[in-house]
Amino acid sequence: MFDFLAEENASICGGSHLKRREFLQIGALGSVGLSLPQLLAAKEHGAVKPGHDNRACIMIFNLGAPSHVDLWDMKPDAPREIRGPFKPIRTKSPDIDISEILPMHAKVADKFSLVRTVHHGGAAVHDAGWQIMQTGRRFSGGVQTPHAGAVASYLLGRKSDLPPFVVLPELMGRGGGNMPNGQAGGFLGKAHDPFALNADPSKKGFKVPDLLPPDQIGAARLD
């Protein structure tokens, strides 16, 4: 188990001193015996030193996609009904084969790592999975656990005029259950809720909403 408080130069997300394995272990707070309140308390006492660089963390959370055995964890020797219709291809990393439908990823496979052991034991409901995978905890009512982005916002603070935690294109809706989707600031407060873009950057004419006045409000009304 990684002892977070024993690492003199440890930091979260923005820091440069965490090893990849240690960062992944910290991400599963509940499984390594370190609760989020303990982590925040450590920050208050100076045990967690914020980073001083401008790196950012991007979390891509797909609401729908092919199975992992059709993408990242091919099973070419499995029976036909298990291995699926796609074939594995070689990548730029000699240790990684991925699906033929990911040729661009294959070209940069030496730049990323695959973690094939991520899972959860929650109910077979989308909402439960979303909550656990984004906050590290099951929702049991009452105060919500904050999203990983909200934790980064709290620990690292605002480095510029840009929001420290952004969700795009929009917040997730309900997925068949009746629980929060895990994308809010939770008990850290509204100040660490994400800025939801509510627009698709891939569409023509894209612009960030609410940065400019509506078209029906002319310059004369703003003077």
TrEMBL record:
Pfam families: DUF1501 (PF07394)
Entry-linked InterPro entries: DUF1501
Protein name: DUF1501 domain-containing protein
Source organism: marine metagenome
